[in-house]
Amino acid sequence: MKKQAFTLILLSILLFSPEKNLLFGGDKVHDFRLNKQFLESFSNDFLAVTSSPKGWSEKDVIRLGAVIASGSFLFAFDGKIRNWIQDKRSSASEDISRVISPLGNGLFLGGSLILVYAAGEIVEDFKLRKTALLCLESWIISGVVVTGLKVLTGRARPYSDGDSTRFYPFSFRSSYHSFPSGHASAAFAVATTIADQSENLSVDVLSYCLATLAALSRIHDDKHWASDVFIGAAIGYFISKKIAALNCKESQQKLNLGVRFSSRSQTIVLTYYF
Question: What's the half-sphere exposure (Cβ side, CA atoms, 13 Å) at 103?
Fold first, then answer.
């Protein structure tokens, strides 16, 4: 069962004083705003994600093995999968792809996250701000990892010569940046974050369905091989899960007593997570 929290307001009186936030029994309150605190948190999360392999457990290694094995299986059939999908392309599938593909595009995702964050600021909704900023973190960090792998492997895109075994390491040409799929990584990084922050099953299902369609559209459009899309989606998913775990304060602290001082009020807040 996902965690839920209830907050008991014990005292609130008017008081003129500089605004402060104190927390007893837990870490400093993270209000998830685009400020210095977020930049520090982002930096720490980035280092934690990139250095996490050295602390992997046996279960993590098994997961990695499963992802590599599945990706290798798809790699062996990349050519056949590509040919089958290209043979099935139609005007209807083209129309659908034009609508779905932008869901993994950086400009679309970036603009959407800005709107969600702005909405959270306007209506003072902590959940919206947190979701938007965690999506941003997951998207950027997975993008850095994916870009590094693209340059390192230099895999030729399907449309370049139709050979799934062509690699040109350390190439900076877009036509040799097939592996892994950036669209799939971005779509699943955002979808996984939304699903983790949501308490609505229909939202979870919709998020993953749209991410899957966005990823598949890259194969349909002949921009990526099936194995590119699978590995890209796995990168976005697991990095998002790591980011969520790093920012899940509720799992670290069951009971928190907080005191907030501002020019308008003094509030004591008791929060219990279960």
Answer: 25
As to burial, measured by CB atoms within 10 angstroms (0-12 exposed, 13-18 middle, 19+ buried), residue 88 is exposed
In the β-sheet with 255-261, what is the strand arrangement from edge to edge? 5-13, 266-273, 255-261, 20-24
* Beta-bridge mates of residue 255: 272
What is the value of pTM for the model shown?
0.81
CATH T-level assignment (fold) for domain 31-52+60-246: Vanadium-containing Chloroperoxidase; domain 1 (1.20.144)
Q: Which candidate, 33, 64, 121, 45, places its Cα nearest to that of 235? A: 64
Query: Residues 91-117: what's their mean pLDDT?
Result: 94
Could you give phi then psi for residue 221, rounded to 5 degrees? -80, 5
- Separation CA 153–CA 191 (nearest Å): 26
Domain ranges of the chain: 1-30+252-274, 31-52+60-246
Neighbours of 273 (CB within 10 A): 16
* Tokens at 100, concatenated: 């779905």
% of the chain surpassing 90 pLDDT? 74
Q: What is the DSSP string of 242-268?
A: HHHHHT-GGGT-SEEEEEEE-SS-EEE
